[in-house]
């Protein structure tokens, strides 16, 4: 039987020849409920992050070990993309089309815009998290909702290495007194959205789940 592996957001990641950063996001195919990539960003955001295919993950025991060198890591797909955003005014006087672009970017992930005040008509650059087509990203800002209300934040996922299928969602302590982390069976997840993960369980049922070992 394959041993399960936890992918924790914030876990240190290392290549075969040195440290490469920390896991910032976990990319999941929501239909197959499989992890496809880990987004690994350099500590303190010094340099671009990379999307690491899960097949390159060698082991995880609190730290993520990758089957690639630092040089190979740097050739992987960037974890962020820069896009042009036309006519985005930081003072709040946007046209309706610009508002639509802004909200689309917010739905995709964290972003930042840079404007040259001397060129009011020039397109601005917005940086957004890369999310491969057909997948969703699991990040720390995701709130877990029981059937009777919010219960905490996502801490990570537990997977089976053989097929990379998600078995549990790791829930960071929220409204659970005396508990730091619990594991929720993936079968109890009814929906993974941009900002929320919805469960078929009540707060009391989540509280009674076994602790993470």
Structure in a nutshell:
With 213 residues, this protein is mainly beta. The protein has helices at residues 70-73, 96-108, 203-207; strands at 5-8, 12-15, 18-29, 34-41, 50-53, 57-60, 64-66, 80-85, 113-114, 124-129, 136-138, 143-146, 149-160, 165-172, 181-185, 189-192, 196-199.
Please describe what this structure looks like.
The chain has 213 residues and is mainly beta. The chain has 3 helices and 17 strands. It has helices at 70-73, 96-108, 203-207, and strands at 5-8, 12-15, 18-29, 34-41, 50-53, 57-60, 64-66, 80-85, 113-114, 124-129, 136-138, 143-146, 149-160, 165-172, 181-185, 189-192, 196-199. Strands 1, 12, 13, 14, 15, 16 and 17 form a 7-stranded mixed β-sheet that branches. Strand 12 (143-146) and strand 13 form a beta hairpin.
């Amino acid at each position: 039987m394959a041993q399960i592996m936890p992918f924790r957001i914030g876990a240190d990641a290392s290549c075969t020849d040195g440290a490469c950063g920390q896991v910032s996001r976990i990319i999941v195919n929501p239909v197959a409920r499989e992890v496809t990539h880990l987004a690994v960003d350099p500590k303190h955001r010094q340099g671009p992050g990379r999307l690491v295919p899960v097949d390159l993950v060698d082991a995880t025991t609190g730290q993520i070990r990758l089957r690639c060198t630092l040089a190979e890591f740097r050739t992987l797909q960037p974890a962020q993309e820069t896009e042009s955003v036309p006519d985005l005014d930081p003072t709040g006087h946007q046209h309706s089309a610009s508002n639509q672009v802004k909200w689309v970017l917010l739905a995709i992930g964290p972003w930042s815009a840079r404007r040259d005040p001397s060129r009011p008509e020039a397109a601005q650059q917005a940086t957004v998290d890369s999310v491969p087509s057909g997948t969703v990203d699991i990040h720390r800002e995701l709130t877990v909702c029981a059937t009777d209300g919010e219960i905490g934040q996502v801490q990570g996922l537990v997977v089976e290495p053989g097929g990379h299928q998600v078995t549990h969602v790791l829930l960071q302590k929220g409204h659970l007194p005396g508990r730091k982390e619990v594991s929720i069976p993936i079968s109890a997840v009814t929906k993974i959205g941009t900002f929320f993960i919805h469960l078929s369980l009540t707060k009391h049922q989540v509280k009674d789940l076994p602790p993470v070992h």
